[in-house]
Amino acid sequence: MDQNQAPLVNALAEYHRLERYGFTPPGHRQGRGADPRVLEVLGAQTFRSDVLASAGLDDRSSSHGYLKEAEQLMAEAVGAEQAFFSTCGSSLSVKAAVLAVAAGKGDLLISRDAHKSIVAGLVFSGIQPRWIQPRWDPELHLAHPPAPSDVEKMWERHPDAAGCLIVSPTPYGTCADIAAIAKICHARGKPLIVDEAWGAHLPFHDELPTWAMDAGADICVVSVHKMGAGFEQGSVYHLQGDLVDQAHLAACADLLMTTSPNAILYSAIDGWRRQMVQHGRELLGNALDLARRLRAEIDALPGIHVLEDELLAVESSHDLDRLQVLMDLSGLGISGYQAADWMRENARIDMGLGDHRRLMATLSMADDDASASRLMDALRALIDAAPAMAPAAPVMLPAPKDLELETVVLPRDAFFGATEDVPAREAVGRISAEQITPYPPGIPAIVPGERINSAVVDYLESGLKAGMVLPDPADPKLHTIRVLRQ
Ligand SMILES: Cc1ncc(COP(=O)(O)O)c(C=O)c1O
Q: Three-state SS for 415?
């Protein structure tokens, strides 16, 4: 195929050139009806390009196949057999993968550091999660991906599970040994789904961690908006091999998908693929050089340590995406929550992830010397400001075994069961009917159907006092927790 083409971008240019007009949605009619004050902020071109995907960009039967061709180009570019674009984020794509593999019933092996969107897939489908425990790091208090031996053990205990799902890279940039895990799954004739939401760029530079399709995964989901140059919500899921039926996977995605996909999102994914094929090695190579330099410069700052060796010195963390610059702030005596708030307020910089002791800068191919200097200046100013800040509020971090809550009821049955809201302390020993997720990184501390323990409640309550955000429970301040009625 001609990778210099971008069929969706070309179709949009042609739409403009021909001055097409639709007596169809969107009702703003390429911006003609939009409020000028909105146009001024969002840009006339944004509205101009917001056209229907079928009976707009393509004709009513999509006879030109612009989307299909763009998807085929993507599959070829990254070495997958098939690729599908989605405008509802990896949140949709992972749910579709879960539904397609587990066929709406039975067991699925899932790494317990899964993103909350996977838990939503469990609620929709009624699937029984068989949790593979990630390697909890008791020193750093973060989860590394599960090791191949952890996956093997779970297959021995649950040989009838439909497949296995792992997250790699984790939101901290650490990567699983996907090739070894895929081999273990395939020895049993079972598919491996890799949630690679943070890895859209991986196929395009050989100094980045191994791309899941190269490592033998059957389905791999990426968010183009995270590490690529797509718009928010742009996602692609890739398929290879014959363990998952392509038509069924597409039908599962169709169940969840909007009927009005955004042509701007599709076109941006298409254009980004062309850009990566033509210039990805150079652009990502520059980003990696910048990351190496910044890592050393930040690590030399007083009170800040850039994590690297300690993230790799565990059996399960096979590799690291060095564009994710994870900084330990313990030496400054402040938390990542405080630092993130300070950076936004004082330096007008938003950071990728902040927790009880860390702050992350997610670099991209768009970063350059100017953005790097801005980050360095802001970090130096943060160091100067830190002594005047209140000391970091203590977060009561659970021991790894306390994070392994017992699944008593199917997530779906717990979520849709008869519930009551009880004071958080009284929820200890009860079965949660809701998901409770510190965000970022979005890994649920409590999943519906799990028995709540006091260590996790202590962690969440103390975390909230320290600045943690819990967007999903009925009471985000956690005065009460929604549990199954007894
Ligand atoms: C590991 C992981 N999977 C899936 C998602 C969902 O991705 P999206 O925001 O594209 O819906 C996220 C989002 O942060 C994530 O971190």
A: helix
